[in-house]
């Protein structure tokens, strides 16, 4: 089976944790996933951070440390090739924070949920900055800029937590791409359980403009019936053949 892509096709790709699974990054909701053993709101919400910043920093520092030696896989690379083939008729919207799409060479990309290897200050308007530090378990890092002004302000991972808005402009860029594409849109969701909004709403937005939707996923998620085509299997194995 192949996805029909001609010189008028616009492709919007949505990726979730499943595309990084074959690189060795745990997903969230699968057995043995990141959420297992964690109360999601305790580690991925502003309330959880407020209540216990050390717990949240332990959760994200462990994920930073676990990225050592992790490389993009054939699915990440297949999306880079498609981007080079389509140019401005391609856009990647990732829910992932693992940085593997950028490492593979993706450029026409929006990170909907932030980036694991960036931190930002909870107080000043300092721009989010590169931060690969896996902080020691009893350390909640402080902002150096605020400290210079005699104020102790916590740093936080540059991650979008539940109940928080997505970064400015992200949804606008995706919506503009969908409406420009119209019926020429192919929406391809890869490795996502389709549970988190607003990402999970993109398949509906595709139908509203008359586009075609595809899902490549290891198992049938709850929202599989919303897609025109469903391909079950590991992304690194299934995706390259679909895009030739
Ligand atoms: C917001 C932090 C508004 C990052 C994450 C409408 C309806 C219902 C609820 C809402 C709604 N609108 C808003 C909400 C609330 C909430 C939400 O969606 N709740 C859900 C859970 C009920 N959404 C929000 O809060 C969002 N914000 O809408 O703001 C607003 C407006 C005004 C003012 C204030 C606010 C913010 C959402 C971002 C949340 N952050 N995490 C991090 O720690 O990483 S979400 C978390 O889940 C991750 O970011 C992850 O990206 C995301 C989705 O998970 P998946 O990537 O799909 O991973 P999962 O494990 O679930 O699934 C993996 C899939 O891969 C599986 O299906 C598996 O079968 C498959 N797979 C496994 N191996 C492979 C594979 N597939 C292929 N190949 C393989 N090898």
Please render the helix and strand layout as text.
Layout: E1 10-15, H1 18-21, H2 40-43, H3 46-51, H4 53-66, H5 74-86, E2 90-94, H6 100-104, E3 109-111, E4 114-121, E5 129-130, H7 144-148, E6 155-159, H8 170-181, E7 185-190, H9 202-208, E8 212-217, E9 229-232, H10 235-242
Parallel strand pairs: 1-2, 1-7, 2-3, 7-8, 8-9
Antiparallel strand pairs: 4-5, 4-6
Helix pairs in contact: 5-10
The chain binds ligand BV8.
Ligand BV8 binds next to α1.
Supply the CATH class of the largest domain. Answer: Alpha Beta
Structural domain count: 2
**Global Rg:** 19 Å
What proportion strand? 15-25%
Cofactors, ions and other ligands in the entry: ligand BV8
Largest sheet: 6 strands, parallel
Features of the shown structure:
single chain, 244 residues, alpha/beta, SIR2/SIRT2 'Small Domain', 2 domains, six-stranded parallel β-sheet, three-stranded antiparallel β-sheet, binds ligand BV8
Structure write-up:
- The chain has 244 residues and is α/β, with parallel strands linked by helices.
- It has two domains: 137 residues, TPP-binding domain (Rossmann fold, 3-Layer(aba) Sandwich), CATH 3.40.50.1220; 83 residues, SIR2/SIRT2 'Small Domain' (2-Layer Sandwich).
- Helices cover 32% and strands 18% of the residues.
- The strands form two sheets. A six-stranded parallel beta sheet has the order 3-2-1-7-8-9, with helices on both faces.
- Helix 5 packs parallel to helix 10.
- The N and C termini lie close together (10 Å).
- 38% of the residues are buried.
- The model has no long low-confidence stretch (mean pLDDT 95).
- It binds ligand BV8.
